[in-house]
Amino acid sequence: MDPEDVESSVGAHERSFDFGRRKGRDRRATDHRDFVENYYDLATDLYEYGWGESFHFAPRVPGESRRASIARQEHLFALKLGLRPGMRVADFGCGIGGPLREIARFSGSQIVGINVSAYQIRRAVAYTEEAGLSHLGTYLESDFTDIDEADESFDAIYALESTCHVPDRVDVFAEAFRLLKPGGCFASHEWCLTDRFDTGNSHHRQLKHDIELGAGLQDIISLHEVDAALDKVGFEVLEALDMADQAGPSIPWYEPLAGPKLSLTGLRSSRAGRSATHTILRALEALRVVPRGTSGASRILNIGGAALAESGQLQIFTPLYFVLVRKPA
């Protein structure tokens, strides 16, 4: 993004959530591609700084690092889908390619990363070349509800916390259905409201709003709405469970955002680390080291991070609703 555009882009994002004098909430649905591109132009560098190359959560067990838990979750997707050398796979909403590279190394499959953000695609291509994985990982700039690929051209498809950016889940699930070969499977982690979410509770509604603001979303839907969308498209459901509900000793998915305990690996994403980063960015803005508006982007992410942590603690939201579905043979 042009440094001159950062501040105006932050303003445009906030106006999409009824901030400021003009109300523009409908833009998230009517111009959702531009809305999402604008969000990730603002957020990508801060995501990578605080979270690494894989922009998703993962369930953890005591003694397991966050990086290890994320890799384990990516391996689980590969195992659930039965990925192996020779398969052609699509990654819907691939970000800067962290999960794609991990899954390609683990499975040997050829993976096409699909992403609406040109900026993220450029970074993904560079990182994949640097990792020596260009023979397994390629990228396509596209809205994943309208992909320029032939019907039945993929053996498997996965999405790690990305379908939430589409205004209607039916659209993205239908595109996955179209692209899959008969008998092929689609696996996804869905951002959802749980049954504990109370639409009559104003604080719950505010937390939902703040997550949408901080994550660049139009609307967070319920687990049941995800199930209904998959059924409407025609998928056979093989598994559907909230991986946030772990048996035995566990570390909650939101702990890196909420935990008071600091570590070298968790400092940047922690509440204290996010606050310190925001303060530093404001100082760097004043010194004209970073573009005006950078601290505004940080503030938006901090609002979302705090809301995610509290929503996780209240168990009214999960980013880990795992679905594994199959296109009938």
| Unreliable residue stretches | 19-25, 261-269
Quick one: overall form?
Answer: globular
**Approximately what portion of the residues adopt beta-strand conformation?**
15-25%
Radius of gyration: 19 Å
- What class do helices, strands and sheet pairing give? alpha/beta
Count of individual helical segments? 12
Q: Quick check: average pLDDT? A: 85
- Main pleated-sheet profile: 7 strands, mixed
* Residue share in helix: 40-55%
Strand segment tally: 7
Order of strands side by side in the largest beta sheet?
3-2-1-4-5-7-6
End-to-end separation in angstroms reads 44 Å
Query: What is the succession of H and E elements?
Result: HHHHEHEHEEHEHHEHHHE
Tell me what you see in this structure.
With 329 residues, this protein is an alpha/beta fold. Helix content is 46%, strand content 16%. It is built from twelve helices and seven strands. The chain has a seven-stranded mixed beta sheet with strand order 3-2-1-4-5-7-6, with helices on both faces. Strand 2, helix 6 and strand 3 form a beta-alpha-beta unit. Helix 1 crosses helix 3. The longest helix has 21 residues. It starts with 5 loop residues before the first helix and ends with a strand. About 5% of the residues have low confidence.
